[in-house]
Amino acid sequence: MNTHDGGADAPEAREAERPGEVDAVADAPDAPEASQPPPPGPAPVEPRTGVAALSLRYRIGAAVALAVVAAAVCVHLGMVFLHIAPSNTVTKAHGKAIDEWIYPEFEQNWKLFAPNPLQQNVAVQVRAQVRTADGGSRETGWYDLSAQDGRAIDGNLLPSHTQQNELRRAWDFFTATHDDDNRAAGVRGTLSESYLRRIVVLRLERGGAAGAGGAVERVQVRSRTTNVAAPSWSREKISTDPAYRVLPWWRVSDDEARGGVQ
Q1: Average pLDDT over residues 192-200
Q2: 3-17, 160-174, 203-217, 234-248: segment of lowest average pLDDT
Q3: Does the model's pTM come out above 0.85?
Q4: Mean pLDDT value of segment 154-179
Q5: Which terminus of the chain has a smaller tally of CB atoms within 10 A, N or C?
């Protein structure tokens, strides 16, 4: 009996101990998992930006374009330097090519080694004798063509070269080829007269100076020159009274009156 009982008690004792063991195992913290090595493969590539992101063909095109722009800038700077530099061997040999590059877009009024800014305001004015539609004749007042160009340029972000330079260059051309008595010096003097006359006649026609059915028969040009006043802090005394240079009357041909070629 005792032996049977004892044999029976032992399995029960062992069964009683097993739940505690299970609980102890359940309460134990999870064991750390073993670290896994990164999968083998190539390293990630950083994305390219800018020119490097372009294909080879476009990178070659960008390089060529940059080289062309750099060459053009260098040529332009060289041409401007030679234009404003004193006369030298290069300008004597290639003066025509330099002028063709500079004029009219990149004209320089100052000389790099001898600055001489203009200290006068020069206005070119014109009046006309007009044949009216009824066969009569009348004389107009003075038209200030330089003031008209000034109003067209004022406030204009992109004024035309005609507004800026046409009249001024024509007057400079005239004064450079005529003496103080307005006598032409050679063929260039005669050409400058024709050029200036053509410009003022066209301006008069556009302004309707002749009126409906009328025609411009003769024109007279004059310049009004006024010295720029000295600044307030200067003690220099400068006369600001205007000085006039009046040219003789010029007859206008029918071709010029119609805007044609004489």
Answers
A1: 95
A2: 3-17
A3: no
A4: 93
A5: N
